[in-house]
Amino acid sequence: MSPNGAADARPLVVHLLHRFDTGGLENGVVSVINHLPAFRHAVVAVTEITAFKERVKAPGTQFIALNKPPGQGFWLYPRVYRLLRELRPAVVHTRNLGAMEFQLPAWAARVPLRVHSEHGWDTNDLGGVSVTNQRLRRVYGVGTQRFVALSKAIENYLTGPVGFAAERVQRICNGVDTLRFAPSTTVPDAWLYRRSEHLVIGAVGRMQAVKDPLNLVDAFLRLRELCPADWPRLRLIMLGGGPLLEAVQQRLADTGAAGQAWLPGDRSDIAQLLPQFDIFVLPSQAEGISNTLLEAMACGCAPVATDVGGNAELVEAGEGGNGLLVPPQDSEALAAALARLVAEPPLRQRLAAASLARVREQFSLDRMVTAYGHLYAGDLPRSGG
């Protein structure tokens, strides 16, 4: 129903995903919901919905958790089928392999438009080499009309090893809200450091193996030898919680560097903290199109990222580029890149300015939302990439 009590005639989009919790994928869903008022929205989580749902501001958005225990979800198909017949959505949009199997009950429920998007590699299948996962996608995608790839690498995966026709695959990169994430001279109350005294190297992300936070810690510690004169003023900020948080804290404590680091866990004020970073680091072993990297670029940070997944689509290395790329799981190479930016302030400032310009020109939120609006309306051009 609409606020005045009349029936709401806007088409309904059901966003069906494994879990609705803090993360880049979920942030993208929130952005789409909050900025596409031409549609009604419902979030259906296969497992659970956390307090993260408070970030959704679109009135009337429904939240439904199926509370599935670990294991195959076949037994949930009848329930999902009945739910979709009740909701009668115009679109069902699943995301990643953990939710893709529910394209089958969406097909059975005759949902008019069935969309599936891939945001990055599965944590147990970096690079998409698993033949089993490729076959599962082929089976689950039989009745799916459109596929969305968030990076060129994922697009090539879907049209290559998985085998979907190019005309069924559309690449829509993440977009960042450049009004919310922007350079700022306002220092938040929580901030501990001063630009005149410190140089901040920062990261934002869940502390789990695929994000490789210990790689960044080891690279930071290496700066003690590579930049001895600058070492006393260097600070490491790592925002985010997760299973490796304690191990990261222990590594810093064991090496006597805990006093030069701040690891506060999950934060709700990322947009206020990011502009305080001088250098932003993404040390992941695998990525799709990283929201946090885009947000850091939009805040005027000089980026250093591992050369995996879609990172090279955001960070152009080399002369005239906007950042530095290094091999994954190579703390020495990462430390060398950081040492270069520490030692060369003009380079650091040029990369920050180029990153800001790149985000505003090519990765705006408006551009992303417009693409999803066309997709849900069914009028995207029938062409790949």
UniProtKB/TrEMBL annotation:
Q: Where is the Glycosyltransferase subfamily 4-like N-terminal domain?
A: 23-178
Q: Which SUPFAM superfamilies match?
A: UDP-Glycosyltransferase/glycogen phosphorylase
Q: Which GO terms describe its molecular function?
A: glycosyltransferase activity
Give the top-rank taxon of the lineage listed in the UniProt record for this protein. Bacteria
Classification via Pfam families: Glyco_trans_1_4, Glyco_transf_4
Q: InterPro entries from the xrefs? A: Glyco_trans_4-like_N, Sugar_tfrase_PEP-CTERM_Stp2
The protein's name is: TIGR03088 family PEP-CTERM/XrtA system glycosyltransferase
> Organism, per UniProt?
Pelomonas aquatica
Query: Could you read off the lineage of the organism from its UniProt record?
Result: Bacteria, Pseudomonadati, Pseudomonadota, Betaproteobacteria, Burkholderiales
